[in-house]
Amino acid sequence: MSEPSTLTIEDVRRALGFAQPLLKFTESDDAIFAYGVFIVSDGPHPNGPAKRFEIKCFFFKDFPKREPIVIENGGVIPRIADRHMYKNGVCCLCVWQEWLVLSQDTSFQAFCDGPLYNFFLSQTWFEQTGEWPFDERSHGAKGIAESISQLLGFKVNEQQANSYAQAILAKRVKGHWPCPCGSNKKLRDCHLDEVISLREQLGADTILGLQSQLQNLMKAERET
Ligand SMILES: [Zn+2]
């Protein structure tokens, strides 16, 4: 993960201005604000019409420390979980911590060319075909569990993902704990290496971020 540096309005213009000539940019103390029409001009469907989305974005100046907020406010995308949209129009672009950890490049440009563009490309493709063009990540707690599975290198469900996060965050990992994978083995005889290497690789902040996102979503899903 790269050190946070100050994102400027020029950085945002450089990253987005050429590909997205219909976006306008302003700034406040802590964020660059981009708004207007976002164009998807190419994509997996060669004959597909260019698609236009009305959006507004908050790119915080401490990027990539804080996840950007992107809102689709033209009402083009249904505001439902299956379309990776929150009710308030916020787009669920990616699992932020996962993107930070798994991306070689976490620059603002890489964010624009990756999760931002791919979100609207996917939405366009989905509208035309009813299918998602990329490996689809589930919405909600299940999506975070998939993200944690990706990081661990093997598949875990939501509860197991939470237990792993707990074990990874513990002051001292104890080998006699039951392994969270559900094998009924002791951690030392099962996935201890993965737990320890993930802790070293990701750091406590990232794991805590993923875990709190997971717990909030699990709680919200229990309540509905
Ligand atoms: Zn195990």
Task: Describe the 3D structure.
β1 (23-27) and β2 form a beta hairpin. The protein is α+β, with helices and mostly antiparallel strands and 224 residues long. It contains seven helices and four strands; from the N terminus they run αββββαααααα. The longest helix is centred in the middle third of the chain and has 22 residues, at 108-129. It folds into two domains: 9-129, Ubiquitin Conjugating Enzyme (Roll), CATH 3.10.110; 140-223. The chain has helices at residues 9-16, 96-102, 108-129, 140-152, 158-169, 192-202, 204-223; strands spanning 23-27, 31-40, 51-60, 69-72. A four-stranded antiparallel beta sheet has the order 1-2-3-4. The protein binds zinc ion. The site of zinc ion (ZN) has 5 residues, from loops.
Strand content: 5-15%
Any idea of the CATH class of the largest domain?
Alpha Beta
Alpha carbon gyration radius: 19 Å
Helix fraction by DSSP (H/I, runs of at least 4): 40-55%
Order of helices and strands: HEEEEHHHHHH
Mean pLDDT: 87
Structural class: alpha+beta
Unreliable segments of 5+ consecutive residues: none
- What would the CATH topology of the largest domain be? Ubiquitin Conjugating Enzyme
Strand order of the largest sheet: 1-2-3-4
